[in-house]
Amino acid sequence: MKKTISRIFIVFLVGLFSLACSNDDDNESKNELKPEETIIGTWELRNREPDGIDICEFSSYFSFLDNKTINGEVYAGDEPSECASINISGSWEFEGGSKFMIQIDGKPDVVEVEINFPNNNTMEMSSQKEGYSEFYARKK
């Protein structure tokens, strides 16, 4: 279960970095948010490629705060009656383009992810190292 939770978090972070880059920085409208602004909010896990997600994982979420901290709850389990959760906290940093760095409290490594935002309510986080992408919806 720890491996599943770690994968969810890594994929989330990778997707987060992928969403941060713009196709055409020169033509950005003044109303368009920058990636480091778009990420602010609470994001709920909705899908993972290529393996999909378990029913318990639909409850997983991450909140990116404007003070560069992150907190959330990651769920794992195959059956609703077996869902277990872990609270996560840490910090995040926008590195430019679609690259974000995430440090989870209690973990020695900083995780590099790519995050893309197809729109302001959808986030894709991917990790080339882990070989999968996660998709999140902004919590209303």
Can you give a write-up of this model?
This protein is α+β, with helices and mostly antiparallel strands. The protein has a single domain, classed as Lipocalin, CATH 2.40.128. Helices cover 15% and strands 45% of the residues. It has helices at 2-18, 35-38; strands at residues 41-49, 61-64, 69-76, 84-96, 99-104, 110-119, 122-127, 132-138. The chain has an eight-stranded antiparallel beta barrel with strand order 1-2-3-4-5-6-7-8. The protein is globular. It starts with a helix and ends with a strand. Residues 39-124 form the Lipocalin-like domain. It comes from Mesonia hippocampi.
Q: What brief labels describe this structure?
A:
alpha+beta, globular, 8 strands, 2 helices, eight-stranded antiparallel beta barrel, single chain, 15% helix, 140 residues, signal, Lipocalin-like, Lipocalin-like domain-containing protein, Lipocalin
Spans of at least 5 consecutive residues whose pLDDT stays below 50 are: 14-29
CATH architecture group name? Beta Barrel
- Overall structural class, as computed from helix and strand content, comes to alpha+beta
Total individual domains: 1
Instruction: Encode the helix/strand succession as letters.
Output: HHEEEEEEEE
**CA-based shape:** globular
The residue fraction in helices comes out at 10-25%
Output the strand order for the largest sheet: 1-2-3-4-5-6-7-8
CATH topology description = Lipocalin
Number of helices: 2
Assembly context of the chains: single chain
- The end-to-end distance, rounded to whole angstroms, is 28 Å
How is the biggest beta sheet arranged?
A: 8 strands, antiparallel, barrel
Count of β-strands: 8
Mean of all residue-level pLDDT scores:
84
| Overall radius of gyration | 14 Å
CATH class equals Mainly Beta
